[in-house]
């Protein structure tokens, strides 16, 4: 019976991404009626769950922090492709899409995913224990990249509005890509031990102790299916984006809400994977996923839109407004105070969730 269940799970996690990809091919570039949008949404949700399964197989095979890095980079690369595609389709209309989506990703990961992971672990085990060296390094890099890419454009004077000129945008793109590359090197090579799970007394734990390792063939197969699932997720998300934009406009909500919805959709696989890790008392894995996703979002999106701006006919608005800058500063301050003690209680998790709630309220009612 167990073998039949496992076989059924494998067949399901293979079939759904393939069917979702077929659905993407059939609906690409077409105006979708309501019933078709509902079907697309079902396939999108199935592809998200399949992506989580395959990401966990890969993570189990390669161990931390490589496993969380694979999912974070894979999701972000396709997210960047979605953002650039939408901006090319309507450069004036989507002038702020990159800013809105990147900032939404930062707030969702650094407050939502991180806060839920800490809260879930701390409620179950009294405190959530993590490695402060790696987590602190990730938070410092996020704070720097967010300030250079999203705050400084608001205060530059060489161009009107919260925009960079060509030289400034080039610097921001190079700095973002360079710092992200250096972080990945630190995380995976030079100081990998800073991103491994720790026990109650601060001792390093082996992530590969839970269960038998998947075979090399299974890992490669999951890598391929993860790619198919993520392409399907982002492609189908683009397909339903006109419906989302119409719904947002009809509800009288700000256009920036579209960026929030896109970020929520593309971050679903990482969010589910992070919460499952937290439920298993592997909060460091959750933090690696959350902060790694935030870093990848800034470090890959800003250089990409900088290159895309060469042929975009519309403006590229990156600077945040005053309320969002306050929330970013609060996120950095609260995150720093959470990281320094190396352990967190449910209170810290709730504080991060409160910041996320404030962001969502202001997104709907600025």
TrEMBL record:
Provide the Sodium/calcium exchanger membrane region domain boundaries: 37-188, 222-363
User: Keywords for this entry?
Assistant: Membrane, Transmembrane, Transmembrane helix
Q: What is the annotated localization of this protein?
A: Membrane
Superkingdom is Bacteria
What is the membrane topology noted in the UniProt record heading this document? Multi-pass membrane protein
The protein's name: Ionic transporter y4hA
Q: Which InterPro entries match?
A: Alkaline_pH_Ca-Antiporter, NaCa_Exmemb
Q: Spell out where the chain crosses the membrane.
A: 12-29, 35-54, 66-90, 102-123, 135-155, 167-185, 223-241, 253-275, 287-312, 318-340, 347-365
- Please tell me whether the keyword Transmembrane is annotated for this protein: yes
What PANTHER family does the database record attribute to this sequence?
SODIUM-POTASSIUM/PROTON ANTIPORTER CHAA (PTHR37958), SODIUM-POTASSIUM_PROTON ANTIPORTER CHAA (PTHR37958:SF1)
């Amino acid at each position: 019976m167990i073998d039949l269940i496992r076989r059924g799970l494998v067949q399901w996690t293979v079939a759904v991404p393939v069917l979702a990809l077929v659905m993407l091919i059939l609906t690409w570039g077409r105006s979708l009626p309501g019933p078709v949008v509902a079907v697309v949404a079902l396939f999108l949700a199935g592809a998200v769950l399949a992506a989580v399964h395959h990401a966990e197989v890969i993570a189990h095979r390669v161990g931390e922090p490589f496993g969380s890095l694979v999912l974070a980079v894979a999701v972000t690369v396709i997210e960047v492709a979605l953002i650039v595609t939408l901006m090319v389709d309507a450069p004036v209309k989507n002038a702020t899409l990159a800013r809105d989506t990147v900032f939404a990703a930062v707030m969702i990961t650094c407050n939502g995913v991180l806060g839920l992971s800490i809260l879930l672990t701390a409620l179950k085990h009294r405190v959530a224990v993590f490695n402060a060296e790696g987590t602190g390094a990730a938070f410092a890099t996020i704070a720097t990249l967010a300030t250079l890419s999203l705050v400084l454009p608001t205060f530059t004077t060489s161009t009107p509005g919260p925009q960079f000129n060509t030289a400034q945008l080039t610097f921001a793109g190079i700095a973002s890509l360079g710092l992200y590359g250096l972080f990945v090197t630190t995380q995976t090579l030079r100081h990998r031990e800073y991103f491994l799970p720790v026990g109650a007394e601060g001792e390093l734990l082996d992530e590969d102790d839970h269960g038998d390792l998947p075979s090399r063939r299974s890992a490669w197969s999951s890598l391929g299916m993860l790619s198919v699932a993520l392409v399907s997720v982002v492609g189908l998300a683009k397909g339903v984006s006109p419906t989302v934009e119409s719904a947002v406009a009809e509800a009288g909500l700000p256009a920036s809400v579209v960026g929030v919805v896109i970020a929520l959709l593309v971050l679903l696989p990482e969010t589910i994977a992070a919460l499952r890790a937290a439920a298993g008392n592997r909060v460091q894995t959750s933090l690696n996923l959350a902060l790694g996703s935030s870093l990848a979002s800034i470090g890959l999106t800003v250089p990409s839109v900088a290159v895309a701006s060469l042929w975009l006919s519309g403006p590229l608005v990156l600077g945040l407004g005053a309320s969002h800058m306050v929330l970013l500063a609060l996120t950095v301050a609260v995150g720093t105070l959470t990281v320094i003690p190396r352990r967190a209680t449910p209170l810290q998790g709730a504080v991060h969730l409160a910041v996320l709630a404030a962001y969502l309220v202001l997104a709907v009612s600025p």
